Automatic annotation (TrEMBL):
Compositional bias annotation for Basic and acidic residues: 25-34
Region (Disordered): 1-47
Ranges where the SET domain occurs: 149-326
Protein's organism: Agrocybe pediades
Name of protein: SET domain-containing protein
Amino acid sequence: MKRGFLNGSKVKKNPLYEPPPANDTAKEAIHDQKAPQATLDDGKLPYGKVENRGERAISSKHRLNFEGSWSAGAPKDYEVSKVAYTEIDPTMFATNPDQVVVTTIPRTYLDKPFDPDGHSVWIVLGPTKAKVVGRPGYLKGLPKPSGPPAYEVKTVPNMGMGIFATRDIAVGELVFAERPLLVAPLDLSPMAGKSAIKLRDKYTPDEFKQILMLECEKHLDFALAVMPPENRQAYLALANDHKEDGSGPLLGILRTNGYMIKNLFDGPNVDEWQSNVYTGITNVGSRINHSCKPNIAHKFDLDSFGFSFIAKRDIPSGEQLCYSYCPVEQSAADRKADLARYGFACTCPSCANPTPESDKLRTECRPKILAAAVAVSRGVANKAVFEALVDLKKQMVEEGLEATDSYHKLLKIIFTVCVMLGMTDEKSTYLKEMKKYGLY
């Protein structure tokens, strides 16, 4: 699986559209439009080749038994900072807002997990750990899929490893759940405040980004040192598409495979850049490959500290489970540009043979749905509106977009129109489909 980490504002964010006039639905579009855009000097980490400024290696009493040197672009005169890590009893937590804790969820003894659901190594600020560990529902077990196992992991030509359905999977079905191998801050580097300002003044923007990656590698080196051997092996076996941009081997894996955890964040709220959220690496889930016609989604549950992977449409036996690494509601050219950082070209039909019709549908479906939601909320509903929305629904299904939030919103709008027009049979049909998607 290949997925981005710290790669800029477009990753796992909605594309920007002109918002319709105000109401609750329109406010969502307005919020999207205010999302800050990345610039060359905003700390966004690079991808591609960088100048080799010499071999570097992290030196630590926790050094693991693998190659610790890589071609880093950090300046030769820069020395890795000496941050004091605090590894404390996982049942306890620190209150210092600046204290970095490397801990395990749940508690382990002698590197042997006693919990049948496994455990995670977590790089976290003390107060954030307290926020999770102190939850009334913490720590519950992972949800269990119903029925026989539904997937298998196997090699995919030109994709490395992938996950395939071993039986028919219904939309909304839990395919599997797992605790992540590692959870870390999206902004992993300890560089902040005056120290960061001094470094920015001394070095070029590119050199500063390489320094950040060097510092990130140091964090990850310590985290993997306290990881159980089987989890460490699973982490190191994951794909790394960041071997030439100055990333260390551990950071490269994290950047390639990280799932953003939007409901786990430092402080009282998620900031507008989403820089205070966390990212997670999983054993099975991190092998899910990309498609612009996704069929699976994930969510992170704080109480079980685990990921659940859920079918977003009916998946027939033998089909590969796929997740989109970029916003799918954009043109083929824009998707290709977004995916360039992962080192592969998408071969789904909409990318392999893009058409003006496909691009038009993908770029216009979301603003059309938002506009329709505003109109319907104002009482605009007639047979022509219903037919236009049904036609849009048909086009989205043919394009493979029924796993998107926009499609789910469209179903709700069509159902509302049916209620407003007294279309009893149609209302029953769309209510049934909404229940199928867990929307009612």
